[in-house]
Amino acid sequence: MLVIVGYLVVLGSVFGGYALMGGHFGVLFQPLELLIIGGAAVGAFIVANDAKTIRATMKVLPKLLRSSHKHDKELFMELMALLYVLLSKGRKDGMMSLESDVDDPHNSAIFASYPEILGNVRVLEFLTDYLRLIVNGNTDPHEIGELMEHELEIYKHEGEVPAHSLARVGDGLPALGIVAAVLGVVHALASADLPPSEMGQLIAHAMVGTFLGVLLAYGFVSPLATLIEHRVVESLKVYQCIKVTLMASLSGYAPQLAVEFGRKALFSTERPSFTELDMHVRDVKSR
Predict the structure, then answer these.
(1) Helix (H, G, I), strand (E, B) or coil at 232
(2) How many Cα neighbours within 13 Å face the side chain of 12?
(3) Which residues contact residue 36 at a Cβ distance below 8 angstroms, ignoring those fewer than 6 apart?
(4) Which run of H or E residues covers position 283?
(5) How far, in Å, CA of 183 to CA of 207, rounded?
(6) 3-class DSSP state for residue 7?
(7) Measured between alpha carbons, how far is 23 from 39 in angstroms, rounded to an integer?
(8) Model confidence, pTM
């Protein structure tokens, strides 16, 4: 929704200012210029990316139109409560007691109490994979930490692929606008026998190409690339919270303190206060 609002502000500011200065909108309506710029941009995008990148970009674009409520305080409270329950059980009964929960989380009584985590396939896979390594007990904590960091780098790289591809399209749009403008000027010069008023109109039409290229680049495409990067950083926080919590537990900290370590890994806008988390953990403990 915010993307649509932002686009409306861009269009309202640009065309509203143009109208206030007495501009004529008929001059700006140049569908052939849009065809040249848009078609060339799509073609360059296809040439510059493989099928996997194109699919990833097409998949993420519709999601950008929705406001991101996926990683809010409630999600992290649920995640930390789940981690507390799992680590408490492992500390009390031994980590091997978690084997059945980790191997089949969909039939686990513990995971069943946290449907939001259970429904997130990638987060669930990340959590259970590393719990499985810890349950086996044959891996050095530093090696697990390095492996987690490596996997987070892969997640970040994969998430930013659409952002990089769109950013390159945005960088090229002003140049493609110049291409359209040059073609318009060539067309105008080829009609040099026309009256000055008509020649001026042709040149004005040609200059619209430069305007459209710059507007599409910095008002529409490049902001989408930046938004994707923000969403990727936001989505990584759930994995970083799991990583910090598990590493604190492996370092010998009690479950309640390990969860506190995970709380510190969150952004301040989603991070529950110490009191909120403590009360939530106490509530989970009492149940």
Answers:
(1) helix
(2) 6
(3) 176, 179, 180, 183, 209
(4) helix 274-286
(5) 10
(6) helix
(7) 27
(8) 0.84
The dihedral through the CA atoms of 38, 229, 226, 73 has a sign that is positive
Tell me the pLDDT of the chain (287 aa) as tens digits.
788 999 999 999 999 998 998 888 888 888 999 999 999 999 999 999 999 999 999 999 988 887 655 667 888 888 999 999 999 998 888 888 898 999 999 999 889 888 888 888 999 999 999 999 888 876 688 889 899 999 999 999 999 999 999 999 999 999 999 999 998 888 887 877 778 777 778 888 888 999 999 999 999 999 999 999 999 999 999 999 999 999 999 888 999 889 999 999 998 888 888 788 778 777 766 66
Rg of the chain on CA atoms, in Å: 27
Q: Of the candidates 163, 162, 81, 168, which has an alpha carbon nearest to the alpha carbon of residue 116?
A: 81
| Domain boundary assignment for the chain | 29-287
**Distance of alpha carbon 56 from alpha carbon 58, whole angstroms:** 6
The amino acid at residue 58 is M
CB under 8 Å to 132, separation ≥6 — which residues? 102, 103
Nearest of 27, 26, 81, 88 to residue 272 by alpha carbon: 81
